[in-house]
Structure formats: structure tokens, C-alpha cells
Specification:
Layout (H helix, E strand, L loop, with lengths): L1 H6 L1 H6 L4 H12 L2 H5 L3 H22 L3 H4 L15 H5 L7 H8 L6 H15 L4 H15 L5 H9 L2 H7 L3 H12 L13 H6 L4 H6 L1 H11 L4 H8 L1
Helix pairs in contact: 3-5, 9-10, 11-13
Length: 236
């Protein structure tokens, strides 16, 4: 079990779950007779772990059973809204909210949460759908934390289309969102634009971002890209 815990830790981290959760899913898969008879048992186990972890996450988000979460047709069209969600989500909009929040949590580092929330608020105010973009920004923030540079982050995360599809984005819309959030400026002497994460870390708040007309126009243009469902409907 130590081996499978180490082997499937990346899958668990991608969904922000503990490595032990992945090991448990692997253990369940190993007990199945079909796994032993498979041509490639490890491929079967890996697939089972990925589906199991994803089902756990969707079950938590949708407040439903893991069995229903495994079937996309059984999932609700929209995630349930938890009490108090948007009061915290939009706290950056109020000019005095941050100082009050900081005083109530003195000594704790909330810089990452502040960056994520400010980025989400800006995107929502520039016409990105709230729930999918919040999940996307949260995923991008935690995904790039372990990468060596912004250029590698831009390249790697833009190609993670399995996440884009889960969140309802086309590959083009996902790549645009990643560029907007991460930025294209990869060095002091290289041309490009700072992403939303970098700008908030450098001191910009939501109001500063909204005053940047080029940024607002660019974000709204990217948000107007048809989503995955619309693209499939048009193809039909």
C-alpha cells in the first residue's frame, strides 16, 4: 500500500484529496476479480482511482452520494449553494471588508485566499460564469504552486483538457482563461502581460483591475467564447 500511495499521490493532489484516499480506491480496485484477469491490471487500477477520487469530489460539491456522483447524468445541473458562500466570496468588493477580515484573523497568512478571491471576483464581474470559474481558478492556483516557472505553468495547465471538460470549457476557452490568470510574461526581458494572480500579488485589488480597460475588454472577449455544451449543441 505504500507503493500505491506514492504512485497515485499526483491524482489525489490534482483533486485536492489526501494520498490515502487514492490508496483506498486502489485497494478496492485490487480486490476485484476482473482486475486480476485484465491484460494490464495497473491500467485498470489507475482508471479506478481516477474515477473514484473524482466521484468523491463531486459528491462533496453536490452534497450527494458517491454512487450518484459517478454518473454525470445523475448529477445536478448546478452545485448547491451553501449558506454564506457569496458573503465570503465577494468580500474584496467592500472597501473596508479586508481590514476587518485581517483584524479577525491576525497572525494568519491569507494571501493565497485573497489572490484567488480577487481573481474570481474580477472574472465574474467581466461576465465569466461564477461557479465554473471559481472552481477553475482554485484548481489553477493549487496546480501551479508546485511548478518551476510561469512559462511551464502556462504550458502544462493549458493542456490539462480533462479538467477543462469537467468544468465545461472548450480547449480554446480553457487556454484563454489560463493565460488570463497566469499571464504570458515569463521573464524580465521577455515581453508579455502579467496574469491576474501576479497583479493581485503586486498590490492591485479588484477596483484596480476593473480600471484597466484593456484587461476588462480582453477578459469579456474571452468569456464570450462558446462553452462546451453550446459547441456540442451546435455540432448536433
Amino acid at each position: 500500500m505504500v507503493y500505491v500511495t506514492h504512485k497515485y499521490t499526483p491524482i489525489a493532489k490534482a483533486w485536492r484529496r489526501a494520498p490515502e484516499d487514492a490508496a483506498y480506491e486502489a485497494f478496492l480496485a485490487m480486490r476485484q476479480p476482473t482486475t486480476l484477469r485484465a491484460d494490464d491490471p495497473w491500467a485498470v487500477i489507475t482508471r479506478a482511482v481516477a474515477l473514484g477520487i473524482a466521484a468523491e469530489v463531486h459528491a462533496d460539491r453536490n452534497m450527494t452520494s458517491q454512487d450518484k456522483a459517478r454518473r454525470p447524468s445523475k448529477r445536478p445541473a448546478e452545485e448547491p449553494m451553501r449558506a454564506g458562500h457569496y458573503e465570503e466570496f465577494f468580500y474584496d468588493v467592500h472597501p473596508h471588508a479586508h481590514s476587518l477580515y485581517a483584524r479577525n484573523h491576525e497572525g494568519e497568512d491569507h494571501s493565497v485566499d485573497r489572490v484567488i478571491r480577487a481573481t474570481c471576483v474580477f472574472l465574474v464581474l467581466t461576465d465569466w460564469p461564477a461557479r465554473p470559474v471559481e472552481q477553475a481558478v482554485d484548481y489553477i492556483a493549487h496546480r501551479i504552486a508546485g511548478l518551476s516557472s510561469s512559462s511551464s505553468a502556462l504550458e502544462i495547465v493549458s493542456k490539462e483538457l480533462h479538467i477543462a471538460i469537467r468544468l465545461g470549457y472548450t480547449p480554446e476557452a480553457w487556454a484563454s482563461l489560463v493565460r488570463l490568470v497566469v499571464g504570458t510574461k515569463t521573464g524580465r526581458r521577455k515581453r508579455g502581460d502579467y496574469g491576474l494572480f501576479a497583479r493581485v500579488l503586486l498590490g492591485d485589488d479588484v477596483a484596480d483591475l476593473l480600471r484597466d480597460e484593456d484587461l476588462v475588454e480582453s477578459s469579456r472577449r474571452m468569456a464570450s467564447v462558446p462553452d462546451l455544451q453550446e459547441g456540442q449543441g451546435g455540432a448536433a
